[in-house]
Amino acid sequence: MKAITFDIAGRNGWCERTIAIHTLVIAGWTGRDTVAMEKHIRELEELGVKRPAYTPVFYRVAADRLSVAPTMQVTGEESSGEVEFVLVKDGGETYVGIASDHTDRQVETYGITVSKQMCDKPCSNTLWRLSDVAGHWDELLLRSYATIDGERVLYQEGKVTAMRAPQDLLDQFAQRGGRFVDGTAMLCGTLAAIGGIRPAERFEFVLEDPVLGRTLRHAYSIETLPVAG
Question: CB-based burial of residue 218 (10 Å sphere; 0-12 exposed, 13-18 middle, 19+ buried)?
Fold first, then answer.
């Protein structure tokens, strides 16, 4: 179990809420646009990752992997981040946040579930109520930046419409036997990388709400540990 104190930003102010996360789920292959999803599948195939047997897929990861820390350590130089919106359930209410499904790409070529477990899943310490954005959900924007060899570049950009809507994902999760109950967090899929998937020294990501004029953001630096053999 991982207890994280979040700022809940509402239409009329904010409050602190400590949420005990006991279930962390990574939803994969969640594309609403099958053409865009096929592009991401091909990206990973180029790295040796097998196609999924069905979509979407729901991978379980240790709850302790969810982190609001500004740094993370990884083994070797084959990992990378990807921006995703995250759903969190607590007190009977669903919240929306922003996270990175940082993944070891080398391990991913022989075991996707294991690769998801290899790295922390950085997230912002601020959440929105899903009910506050549900009416204009399709207007929300995802964006990420990667610092590579000292240069900050736009890494991903697009609307959340690239992925299945929250309720659709939760319905699919239930059909696979999942229970989105209090203490559950779910990362919900990503966008294709501009210029291809690659490692970085620093990763930044945002979720923008142009209707209410607000942004969720987080950034983390990556410390690469040596591989001794």
Answer: buried
Question: CA Rg, the chain, in Å?
Answer: 16
Q: Report d(CA 221, CA 122) in Å as an integer.
A: 10
Whether the Cβ atoms of residue 178 and residue 25 lie closer than 8 Å to each other: yes
For the chain, list the domains and their CATH numbers.
Answer: 2-225 (3.90.850.10)
Q: How many Cβ atoms sit within 10 Å of the Cβ of residue 111?
A: 14
Percent of the chain as helix, strand, coil, to the nearest 5: 20, 45, 30
Nearest residue to 61 (alpha-carbon basis) of 115, 5, 122: 115
State the pLDDT at residue 204.
98
Interval 165-194: pLDDT, tens = 999 999 999 999 999 999 999 999 999 899
Q: How confident is the model at residue 55 (pLDDT cuts 50, 70, 90)?
A: confident
* Most distant pair of Cα atoms in the chain: their distance: 54
Does the pTM of the predicted model rise above 0.90?
A: yes
Residues in Cβ contact with 183 at an 8 Å cutoff, skipping those fewer than 6 apart = 1, 19, 20, 21, 22, 23, 89, 90
pLDDT digits (tens, 9 = 90+) for 80-135: 999 999 999 999 999 999 999 999 998 988 888 899 999 999 999 999 999 999 99
Instruction: Give dist(CA 29, CA 185) in Å, integer.
Output: 17
- Token pair for 174: 């239930």
Q: Which two tokens stand for residue 63?
A: 């709850």
Q: Are the C-beta atoms of residues 176 and 193 closer than 8 Å to each other?
A: no
Q: Read off the tokens for 107.
A: 């391990």
